[in-house]
Amino acid sequence: MEPILECHELTKKYGNYFALSNLTLSLERGQIVGLLGPNGSGKTTLIKLINGLLTPTGGQIMINGLAPCPDTKKIVSYLPDRNFLNEHMRVSQILSYYEDFYDNFSTERASKMLETLEIDRRLRLQDLSKGTLEKVQLVLVMSRAADLYVLDEPIGGVDPAARDYILQTILTNYNENATVLISTHLISDIENILDRVIFLKNGQPALNASVDEIRTKYGKSVDALFREVFKC
Amino acid sequence: MLGKLIKHDLKSLGRLFILLHVCFVAICLAGRVFFMNQLDFNAPDMSLLTPLIIISSLAILLVVAINFCTGLMITFRFYRNLFGREGYLSWTLPVSGIQHLWAKIISGSIFLIVDTLVIAAGTLILVTGRNVVEAYNSVSAEFTQVLGMPLPMFALYMLLFSIAGCFSTLIMIYFCICVGQLFPGHRVLCALAVYFIVSFVIQIIVFLIMTVCGFFDFAAQPAGTVSVDMFRLMAPSAVLMAVLTVIQYITVHYIMKRKINLI
Question: A219 to chain B, minimum CA–CA distance in Å?
Fold first, then answer.
């Protein structure tokens, strides 16, 4: 089966600064992958390139065999590291918006999750707390039956209880053939759900291995290995 | 998908747009009832002058304000929806950059054209009172002679020119924002700088065209009518604007297709 994501000598420059430099990697389907690295290592740049929010300076990026285009956007569900919704809209309006544009969006699934979270659909997004807004965003993203979920810092700004809910939501809402790519600094929180990790260092992969490999080969947890590789 | 994008664009600005324009029409109606209808055009000239200057100035101010607000709303919508935080959602919808561009062109054109029509309607409300029409009828022959055509015909031409100008105004706004996005930082400031530079260049070119066409050579010109002079200026200006609009559209099209960088 074709890999869901392939990067070949992918390069992105901002002025004279290389955010990504000749990055080559491939992601298989049906796994949860941690994209880990310190600030400025190129995680968000890679994620934006996957979603067509940045134009590569060089190299190629393919999702399901295609360069980012409307067809790849149909199968990629993206959670940015910031609030990306029009805050004047009501929760119900943003549900309709997703339903309008994404064929694979399940309003029923989203409604169930909102009910569990006791979020009133009549509320405007600007009236929600930061944590609740992040949950709404995650609900929207995970209510799509996508092939690739790309989550940029999904647990960065929420309390530990909310983190558990978010991770549980991710685990229970993706199908086994889909791939989930999660970028985060909070490695210990997500370590248990990861199948594979990619360490990014200065725009290049420092490590691309399964969690089992890391444990058997290095005899360490992902968190411990991360601290060792990126020691200041 | 294009239809859905247009629908959401119209919905997003619709409420504020309608509110603004309803207020405008209401002010025009109030102006007609409480001011224009009270004017006595048989009164001595000097006593008419002050109220007419006041109402004309207020009307011009109001028209400029409503037009400016509409332009600002369209500008903010384009910027926020595509290059602000909301861009993270817009650009990950399964639609192409060109569909985004055309959705914004079509919805923006609808807003600008409706804005122009409402302004025209408001102006008509102000100047179609019986006293104003009677006063105009008494001088209509002279007016027609000066204009070179009846006033309603002249006004209709102006309206059509304004509607045609909506498209180039819109492309100019989108062009400035898109070119501003090519800079690594201070993108809004860069878009503003592009706007002022382009406007300045256009003014210079129009001035040159006017000079080449002999518009300032008063001695060589026969005494023409207002409409003849206007059309003599507008024809080359319209060609210039059409050429500029095409160039700007091609640039915007290229940026939206190949140079998107949300940082």
Answer: 39
Task: Please determine, for residue B46, whether its predicted confidence score (pLDDT) is greater than 90.
Answer: no
| Res B38: pLDDT | 80
Q: Which residue has the tokens 């290095």?
A: A218
Chain A interface disruption, residue of B6, B15, B92, most A CBs within 10 A: B92
Choose among A226, A193, A224, A140: nearest CA to A31.
A193
How confident is the model at residue A177, as a pLDDT?
85
What gap in Å lies between CA A30 and CA A1, rounded to an integer? 11
In a mutagenesis test of the B interface, which of A46, A72, A73, A90 is the best target, namely the one with the most B β-carbons within 10 Å?
Answer: A73
Q: What's the CATH number where A156 sits?
A: 3.40.50.300
Residue B224's pLDDT is 62
Average pLDDT over residues A46-69: 93
Q: How far apart are CA A40 and CA A19, in angstroms?
A: 7
Report the alpha-carbon distance of residue B81 to residue B231 in Å, rounded: 39
What residue in A sits closest to B84 (Cα-Cα)? Answer: A84
Residue type, B237: S
Beta-carbon separation of B262 and A97 below 8 A: no
Closest CA to A140 of B92, B148, B194, B19: B92
* Count of Cβ atoms closer than 10 Å to residue B133 Cβ: 11
Nearest to A51 among B85, B92, B259 (CB): B92
Model pLDDT for residues B218-256, shown as the tens digit of each residue: 666 555 667 777 777 777 788 888 999 999 999 999 999
The residues spanned by each domain of chain B are 2-258
Domain tally, chain A: 1
Residue where the block lists tokens 């990790």:
A197
Closest by Cβ to A70, choosing from B95, B259, B260: B95
How do A148-152 and A32-36 pair as beta strands? unpaired
Q: Indicate the SS3 state at residue B74.
A: helix
Domain extent, residue A207, equals: 5-229
CB contact under 8 A, B4 and A51: no
**Residue B262 near chain A (CB below 8 Å):** yes
The H or E element that residue A62 is part of is: strand A58-63
- d(Cα B21, Cα B66) in Å, to the nearest integer? 8
Question: How many residues does the structure list for chain A?
Answer: 232
Burial class (CB in 10 A: 0-12, 13-18, 19+), B212: exposed
Task: Kindly report, residue by residue over B172-208, the tens digit of the pLDDT.
Answer: 999 999 999 998 888 999 999 999 999 999 889 888 8
CA of A97 vs chain B CAs: smallest distance (Å): 8
Which residues of chain B have a CB within 8 Å of the CB of A53?
Answer: 87-88, 91-92, 260-262
